[in-house]
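Worked example 2:
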Amino acid sequence: MSSLAPSLNFELEIEGMTCASCVGRVEKALKAVPGVSEAEVNLATERATVRAT
């Protein structure tokens, strides 16, 4: 029997992004944060969805 660690989902407002390069940099920075397992950034909505375990 495997034990799944609980995860937390966060939605963050990200202002000032103007291009796909910005999205890549923000995603990379978020994924580098200890405990973050997934990060997805949307340029059109200026939001990031982050999953932490």
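Helices lie at 20-31. Residues 20-31 form the longest helix (12 residues).
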